[in-house]
Design brief:
Layout: H1 4-10, E1 19-22, H2 28-38, H3 45-52, E2 57-63, E3 74-81, E4 84-92, H4 101-115, E5 120-126, H5 130-138, E6 142-147, E7 164-170
Parallel strand pairs: 4-5
Antiparallel strand pairs: 1-2, 2-3, 3-4, 5-7, 6-7
Helix pairs in contact: 2-3
Length: 172
């Protein structure tokens, strides 16, 4: 059973050097820019706004704490249905990478999902993204499957496209 004490013990509480909160409409243009800097098929602020208007989606953003009204450093978008959730995307701005922003976003998202009594969290990650895979494994995600040739790119032959690793975290 989830308790706030369990979340604290697991280290899922936000550290004081970042403020993680739900995204606001004013964040959308920055989130679109962060997504564009991270992925070849980027979402516009209009596409992000459409997702956020759906009650099945939550978007958490990370800000420096003393400047809570500054631009986000990164974000995670999650879709939640019944007692399960899926990370749709996670991205950090180029200048915020490898500084723990994604980890803190994930920790706070996990904490929120546990508080909301979700039982599982899923994600897909490109098999070539070793930094992300290491992060997910450090947060106790386990690989439960693969989707061969899942990621499009310059390759037209699906057998040469990167495989998506399907990972799961048991919550609670």
């Amino acid at each position: 059973m989830f308790t706030l004490f369990n979340a604290f013990i697991k280290g899922y509480t936000a550290k004081p050097d970042l403020l993680v909160q739900q995204a606001e409409k004013a964040d959308l243009s920055t989130l679109a820019k962060i997504h564009a800097a991270s992925f070849s098929h980027a979402w516009s602020d209009g596409e992000l706004e459409k997702m956020l208007s759906n009650h099945h989606y939550i978007c958490m953003v990370a800000h420096p704490p003393r400047t809570a009204h500054s631009k986000p450093l990164g974000f995670v978008l999650v879709r939640s249905v019944l007692d399960e959730a899926e990370i749709i995307t996670i991205a950090t701005g180029p200048s915020s990478r490898r500084k723990g922003v994604a980890k803190k976003l994930l920790q706070e998202t996990i904490r929120k999902l546990e508080y909301d009594r979700k039982s599982k969290l899923f994600l897909e990650v490109d098999e070539t993204n070793q930094a992300a895979i290491k992060l997910y494994k450090n947060l106790h995600f386990k690989q439960i499957g693969e989707r061969e040739g899942y990621y499009a790119g310059t390759e037209t032959d699906a057998s040469k496209r990167p495989t998506a690793l399907v990972m799961q975290l048991e919550l609670g």
